[in-house]
């Protein structure tokens, strides 16, 4: 089944939003397949956001991501990449709808609490980058209560 890479950024960890964010993905019905609290260095952050290296905000973005521990996760479920992005909200939290994570918990673009893969292909790349050792193999016993 489809998987996505979700990262709670340093501000989300510092603001004690970890439980809230994990709870939203759990309650939606997605399955947690990988989870770690970790700090990354700027070389790693640059790899993760390599597609944005030409952007004027790139250095600030890298500084932000290395500024404290992050929670890296793999979530699984039907359409989880696109649905995860909807749950997260738009890049600019001031434009994110209430009810989304960024809409409810953030104001600034450079402090927008959470990352989610933007496509199935980028999810695969990001999962391989963040979990090179692989992720858990398990199937939730709630599976047939969530998927028809
Ligand atoms: P991610 O899930 O983190 O990848 O965000 P996104 O997919 O909604 O946006 P994008 O990939 O375009 O940008 C990655 C991150 O860079 C954003 O989440 C912001 O934290 C930051 N960012 C994007 N655009 C801007 C900008 O114009 N100014 C600043 N300061 N930060 C930006
Ligand atoms: Mg992105």
Outline the fold blueprint.
Blueprint: E1 3-8, H1 10-14, H2 18-28, E2 31-38, H3 42-48, H4 58-65, E3 70-76, H5 80-88, H6 101-105, E4 114-116, H7 120-130, H8 143-146
Antiparallel strand pairs: 1-3, 1-4, 2-3
Bound molecules: guanosine-5'-triphosphate and magnesium ion.
Can you describe what's shown?
The chain has 148 residues and is α+β, with helices and mostly antiparallel strands. It is 41% helix and 16% strand. The protein has 8 helices and 4 strands, in the order βααβααβααβαα. The protein has helices at residues 10-14, 18-28, 42-48, 58-65, 80-88, 101-105, 120-130, 143-146, and strands spanning 3-8, 31-38, 70-76, 114-116. It has a 4-stranded antiparallel β-sheet. The longest helix has 11 residues, at 18-28. The radius of gyration is 15 Å and the shape is globular. The chain starts with a strand and ends with a helix. The mean pLDDT is 97. The structure holds guanosine-5'-triphosphate (GTP) and magnesium ion. Guanosine-5'-triphosphate (GTP) binds next to helix 4 and strand 4. This is Nucleoside diphosphate kinase. ATP binds at residues 9, 57, 85, 91, 102, 112.
Please, how many helices? 8
Q: Which consecutive residue ranges, at least 5 long each, have pLDDT under 50?
A: none
Spatial extent as radius of gyration: 15 Å
Mean pLDDT: 97
Ions, cofactors and other bound molecules: guanosine-5'-triphosphate, magnesium ion
In sequence order, what are the helices and strands, one letter per element? EHHEHHEHHEHH
Helix content: 40-55%
SS class: alpha+beta
Overall 3D shape: globular
How many beta strands in the DSSP annotation?
Answer: 4
Enumerate the strands of the largest sheet in spatial order, edge to edge or round the barrel.
Answer: 2-3-1-4
User: Beta-strand percentage?
Assistant: 15-25%
Task: Describe the main β-sheet briefly.
Answer: 4 strands, antiparallel
N- to C-terminal separation? 14 Å
């Amino acid at each position: 089944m489809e998987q996505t890479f979700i990262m709670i950024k340093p501000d989300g960890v510092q603001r004690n939003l970890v439980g809230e964010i994990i709870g939203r993905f759990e309650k939606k019905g997605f399955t947690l397949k990988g989870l770690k609290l970790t700090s990354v260095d700027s070389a790693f952050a640059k790899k993760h956001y390599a597609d944005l290296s030409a952007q004027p905000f790139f250095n600030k973005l890298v500084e932000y991501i290395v500024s404290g521990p992050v929670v890296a996760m793999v979530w699984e479920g039907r359409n989880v990449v696109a649905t995860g992005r909807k749950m997260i909200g738009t890049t600019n939290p001031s434009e994110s709808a209430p009810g989304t994570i960024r809409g409810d918990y953030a104001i600034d673009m450079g402090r927008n609490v959470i990352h989610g893969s933007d496509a199935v292909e980028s999810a695969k790349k990001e999962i391989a980058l963040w979990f090179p050792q692989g992720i858990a193999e398990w199937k939730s016993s709630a599976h047939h209560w969530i998927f028809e």
